[in-house]
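Example complex used in Figure S2.
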Amino acid sequence: MKFGLIGNPNVGKSLIFHQLTGLGVEVSNYPGTTVDLERGNVCFEREKLEIVDLPGIYTLDGNSEEEVMVRTLLESGDVDMLICVLDSTHLERNLYLLVQVAEYRLPTLVVLNMSDEAEKQGYQIDNEHLSSLFGVEVLTTAAIQGRNIDRIIPTAMEASRIPTLEVQYDHHIEAAVRSLMSMHMAGRVDALNALQGIGPDPDLTESAAVLAVEIEPRHRMSVHQIIAGNRHHCAHTITEAVLKYHETEPGFDIDRILTKSFPGIPILVGIMISVLLVVFTFGSWLEGLIVSAFELYAMQPLLAMGLPPLLEQLSVSIILALQAGIGIAFPFVLTFYILISLLEDSGYLTRAAFLADRAMHRLGMHGEGIIPIVLGFGCNVPAIMSIRLLHSRRERVIASFLVTMIPCSARTVIIAGIVASFVGILAALSIYLAVFVLIIITGMLLSRITPGEQFGMIMEMAPLRLPTGHNVIMKSWNRIKEFLFIAMPLLIVASIILGFLQYAGAFEAFQNYIEPFSTMVLGLPSYATTALIFGILRKEMALETLVILAGTANLNSVLTGVQLYTFAIVSVLFIPCISTIAVLYKEIGLKITLIVSLYTLGLGIFIGALINILIK
Amino acid sequence: MKSSSREDYLEALCKLGGIKGSCPSVAELAELLEQDPDEVRRHLDHLAATGDIRISGDECIELLSPGMDTGKKVMRKHQILECFFTEMLGMEPDAASREACVLEHNVSDDTIDRLGSYIKNPPCMIDNHLRKRGRRKHNFETLDDFKEDDLVIVRKLLWHGGCNRLMDLGIFPGEKIRIRRKLNNRGVVVQVKGCDIALSSEVAGMIVVEKAP
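Predicted assembly (829 residues):
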């Protein structure tokens, strides 16, 4: 037996899901999509039931990846029963989805969640009337307090019924639906979907298209508009019938502060900077601990064992990869996830996106794009992982370019350790300035050439709530699991390959080969180029390797100021580190990862060469 | 028989079949085409000979698959052309239909496909300059012209292609919405069906509204 949890975004669906299933949730992609699907099991009367948490959607006839996925799932009959979670405080909007869900005629239980909030706001819902109108059982819950959550599964097992509600559509639509149903032996839902141009059967959509073109001019509206209008009307009539509202004293509206230009924008800047500072300071402190622990307890004992050279090299590679992965995963990624879950659950994230929309628009993204950009300063890895918050692939592509160019904390180490200490603080700041200008140019360029349409932002503001600690931790843990189990193996494999190359002497050969190029184009000695290559493993390793290869920590005794400056700016722009490449590959695919890597490589060399030519 | 009149006949038969749902009679066809039944019958015999239709008795003309394909194709061309003429060029429906009747025989499939997708998704005129110019001509007010706390009624969505998400959220002609917040950059937050929805300025500029009484 398989249950599907369905509902609008922000109705407490995931909270209910986690309360029902507890630990042991499995996150997987729905076949053929990148949409996350959480699955969990629950035991009822010695029977194992599977629960699937479907992504939050507003409608079943849309074209976004989530909407298509949920629709296909309902059509495929892969779920046996639906638990439709509604937000009692926004009943009418939620009923719009329920009206559509009801048309699929699957056994359904309606859960009116957030009843505590609704009571507080003076809403009263007549459950029995609602239940009789839809022909399904209705259960009132309050997931935050855990009220009635334990009754969901028993009620669903005993009393979920097939909905009987029929939406009255415009008579042209009804006629078209009837003729499609008789012509193609199609179901009512399939016919309605086909009229809106969606559905798997090309014959059906084709004949529906002919009918649709006939209907549309008469109404001066698209079929989708007509159907949506009828459904809204239906939802509205039902709401009028079942909802009673007592005027209550409106409390203080925090949005008066948060979404105004002033003080909203200073607050936004403050919050973003503090998120960055927390990730940065706490992260690098913890990273230092983890990295040195690895040095002390893994690397040194390993080197002391005196293994055969090949084995030693490969083991070192594995330890380096683990060191880089774990050194980033817990300090940066986990801290970030906890903070972002806090912002997300409290509803602040949508406000931040609203305020930042205009600025991000220039770079070809919407307001949500501010999150990856800000996080990029701490560490590119969580920043890349957060690009899934963005809605279109176009935005994700643009964000993946920009984020990989942002100077993360490791690159700050290089800028501080080389330029600030040997050349001067102004030179160090000029590197930041140059990188920002390049980021803005890249963003403006990409917003012109990246394929895909750019729609304006249409986003529901999540209501402000106090996040619960348990929920935040659960969410963060589920997300970091992905990093640990998907990005880490990639990291280890890549590191072993690099280690093997080093063992095989590829780097010496490379050094000889690159010598003329390195001195000609970048004006750098070849060992500095080798150090740059090591920067791919972990960015700050470029600095460490440079010191080792130069044979002195007093770098200005072997390299000139211009050389140091060039080295720093190239390593900042140069290919992202291997962990970033691993998550890029996971989030956005091989092609874009390659383009991003080549673009940053080219840009780094180009700028390095430019400085070399101009200043020399 | 000329290819254009063959197409006219097949189109008419398709239309009749679609309306009635059963096979049309010669008399009905003659009425629709405004032609003499005898002449119609003569043409039908010709079509039957080429394998486009089958005539069983006097009362039932059955379209065979080659005839059906041609008929549907021409009907679609007609509808798309007519829709373009009335909706986008603002022609009178009768004139638009007459014009479409002539053009439908000569227009290529590719043109029709492109025109069809153009009607569905006209290039978004998000550009402020264009929008302002359009506004002066039509003299309508959009959501971003109002102040905070104004109560307005949605009249029209100018954004043909991408407004499905707006409708899913309840921003729909006839719906009363309240402007909760407006930024200097004309981004707005509106309250629809009790929910707060943030819209960027381009989207707000696509929603034609008027002040609620």
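Residues 2-159 of chain A form a domain with the Rossmann fold fold (CATH 3.40.50.300). Chain A touches chain B through 47 residues (CB under 8 Å).
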